[in-house]
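Note to self: keep these together.
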Amino acid sequence: MTDLAILQTVLGVTFKQISLLSQALTHSSYANENPGAGVSNERLEFLGDAVLDLIVAENLYRNFPELPEGQMTKIRSYLVKQETLALLAKSLDLGAQLYLGKGEENSGGQDKPANLARALEAVIAAVYLDQGLKVTETVVLRLIEPEFQVAISEDIVTDYKSRLQEYLQAQSQSAPNYHLIATEGPDHAKTFVVEARLNDTVLSTGIGRAKKLAEMEAARLALEKLEKATSHT
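Structure:
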């Protein structure tokens, strides 16, 4: 049984138009079987896809200046793909909240990744229409934070650390090492400062919103510095 009150609590949002949230959870199979139940979530899904893409892209652009365009694209693609959205939907228990037609329900529709991902996009659109972009951004960024950390830990971004090590080895040098020299800011918005060192020599200093990103930025800057020096010799 759908409990919109619980879902609102989980989202941290109190809807002005609760019908929007109800629509976001209405699968087309349910709408087809129940003509008086209103429209399905398909149009909301369309809007939510665009809103989610904007929020993720802007967050990457504003808060991660160390990431080049190609790496931002990889992270965004990971965060908005169906499999990731389905996992996030499960964290909200959206499957149990969906209005499904009998056939879809009997075939396990509440667990299908496509249904879960689309429902999440529709919920995002519902929040956007009801609360505006700022509130939606807060909801989305809080929701995707764990998966953002996964994107970093699984090396979805280019591993400049490996490239720097390979470069130094080609020059008969030892492997670089990384030292966390500072952590700044509150828990929800920490900034990490890391030095890349070759023996006792500081090659570069990287700053990032995650320790691994700071290390990556330090490696990127060191590689850039070393390659530039080589090209001028």
